[in-house]
Amino acid sequence: MSSTIKTVAHAGAAGSLGIEVLKGLVQAGFDVRVLSRKAGKVPAAYANQVKEVVVNYDDPASLKSALDGVDAVVSTLGAPAVGGPQRALVDAAVSAGVQRFIPSNFGCDQQNPLTRQLPVFAEKVKTEDYLTEKAKSSSLSYTFVYNNLFLDWGFSHGSLANIKDRRVVLYNGGDLAISVTRLATVAKGVVGVLKNLDATRNHSVRIEDGKISFKQIAAIAKDALPGQWTITEADTDALKESSDQALKAGTVEGWVWFNYILQGGTNAKYGPAFENIDNNQLGLARLSDGELQALVKDIITQTARE
Fold first, then answer.
1. Where does the NmrA-like domain lie (predicted)?
2. Which of 56, 65, 114, 300 has its Cα between 20 and 30 A from that of 85?
């Protein structure tokens, strides 16, 4: 068995995080196979630099064939594929003798007992447990990468602030400085794991660009884009209760899941302000408070122009 990772299979390369991870893998010099449900899903910028393999997640033979000769699997699959399809990929990785599996469990710290109970993470938790069991009886190892809330994505998609409507919500008072991470930093973290196999074997790692509070975000937003801003407050325990009641009534709309993510990503009980950071181990820089605040201002300004 190779002691280094050379060939990486990447599932879910077309999404926002997937594209950044694919870029990181290619730039790091790995031989990359992109696993696609349909041909032609590789982002155009990398079509000539990777090999695309069409797979059927309902066909174990198809998945195993795609992973023959692969050293590591990186998954950035989105919902609902993080459930059954991703676990089918785990089975194929075991059969093919893959060394390392990084599942699509990025985001909130799913080792926190409270976070593990949030319905939005149910399938991801099942996959983590599945990998843990498989690692006991096979040569496959795993690494779970947590980054809490995405930084750049959080502004472009409104989870950290709604730039278009000039609105910021102060969750749980807005004082807690939570971990935030750019998509590109997550990609570098994935590469760092694959280059540090022994240190990350069967472990979870926590990465961040830095920590910032929603009150700081509100102040930076007002400075970056002077004018009228709407600043409101919300209690994520109450938001979670609303989602719990909605699920009981059979409502599965986007806001239901988003409330759970806000609970895990901003409520102190759920560990969103990472205490033990693995940036150094993975070769990742961490921004100073001043650098992070300057970056946030730049992101807000750029988002407003788009």
1. 6-221
2. 114
Backbone dihedral angles phi then psi of residue 233, each to the nearest 5 degrees: -125, 150
* Predicted TM-score of the model (pTM): 0.96
Between CA 62 and CA 286 the distance in angstroms is 41
Residue 37 CA to residue 57 CA, distance in Å, equals 8
> CA-CA distance, 21 to 42, in Å (whole number)?
12
The full 3-state SS of 31-66, as one line of letters, equals EEEEEECCCCCCCHHHCCCCEEEECCCCCHHHHHHH
Q: Give the sign of the dihedral formed by CA 103, CA 128, CA 81, CA 206.
A: negative
